[in-house]
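User: Quick sanity check before I run a bigger batch. Here is a single chain. Can you write out its predicted 3D structure?
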Amino acid sequence: MRVKVEGREHVPRRGAVILAANHRSFLDSIFIPLVVHRRVTFVAKAEYFDDPKTAWFFRGVGQIPIRREGGSASERALASATEVLQRGKVFAIYPEGTRTRDGLLHKGHTGIARLALRCDVAVVPVGLVGTDEVQPVDSRMPRLFRRVTIRFGETIDPARYEGRANDRLALRELTDEIMYEITQLSGYEYVDTYATKQAEDIPTETARIASFGDIRAPEIAAL
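Assistant: Done. Predicted structure follows.
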């Protein structure tokens, strides 16, 4: 593949960090570890580890198995990510929750913000461009000789939301800030709806996109 990498210097060479990327292809979890000079850990469906044909690969690239049935999968994934970050490692996450099926960039789930605030860890936004051209959703085989661009943005420090890890407004604003940066890095159109596997959007209230310069006191932000 013809892979172009921009902004890799924004990924710290040591210490805990969260990589937050848009999600367009199964291969996203391969391209990111290939261009980062540190081991990158993801959370993956346990089914991948049950199949001998894929288990060796997912273990080799540092992914953590998570079963969706029985209890809260999101909480278990959050706990696994917390363990990785507490060891000073790199954890990667797709705030959209699933791959886009309409080519648009969708609203992020607030788990990324909760994780960043819980662990007091900075977030590096990542824009993936063209990975769906290599292997579209539901395609079994990749296409060769396609162009892929991976852009790493400047670090987002969640420090100004300190003490607000349980504040739904703070979580929403930090998540929207991260998604805004991913939008700028990827260049894909953003829509304020969640991505679903059925390619049907869940109507939601309009979410405000926070900017870097939007530093407000909690009592003002709640208005």
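Strands lie at 2-6, 17-21, 40-41, 43-45, 64-66, 90-93, 123-129, 147-152.

User: Great, the batch can go ahead then.
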